[in-house]
């Protein structure tokens, strides 16, 4: 199985990154192939609602790093969406990526794929309700099933490292894929 991790935090070695790595470690232990992309290292332009993706080949015409991400999404069986909570939503690059999934709304290419949401926040799981709803509605529209959701409380860089229970849970999510 191929697993693509989309890291939407600016903090390498931060809570989101640590949790994604634990999920990846569990998945690799189960024999799965993994790849992680740091969205902050990529050039992702916003969707401009040009609607070029709603006709013809059903592809986005924006020329940026998303063109390299689309084939990786196509090849993945599971997509990990990792983002810290920013004002009750995802980070900017994660939202840009989500908006750029629009070409998939015109096809069934994502139907049957699974997703895992990893969203640490200072305020805990209840504060994540709006962003989880955004992901659920968007992914459901695209035919992607959410396999699991991890919403730990963590704010300071690397704080999650002191929470053995959440780290074990993240590893278990990956191992269960």
Provide a descriptive summary of the structure in words.
The chain is an alpha/beta fold. The chain has one domain (2-176): Flavodoxin domain (Rossmann fold), CATH 3.40.50. Helix content is 33%, strand content 16%. The protein is built from five helices and five strands. The protein has a five-stranded parallel sheet with strand order 2-1-3-4-5, sandwiched between helices. It is globular and about 50 Å long. The protein starts with a strand and ends with a helix.
What keyword list fits this structure?
single chain, alpha/beta, Rossmann fold, 5 helices, 5 strands, 33% helix, 16% strand
Distance between the termini: 9 Å
Gross morphology is: globular
Oligomer: single chain
- CATH class, please? Alpha Beta
Q: State the order of secondary-structure elements, H for helix, E for strand.
A: EHEHEHEHEH
Task: Determine the CATH topology.
Answer: Rossmann fold
Topology:
Layout (H helix, E strand, L loop, with lengths): L1 E6 L7 H15 L3 E6 L27 H10 L2 E5 L9 H8 L14 E5 L10 H13 L3 E6 L13 H13 L1
Parallel strand pairs: 1-2, 1-3, 3-4, 4-5
Helix pairs in contact: 1-5
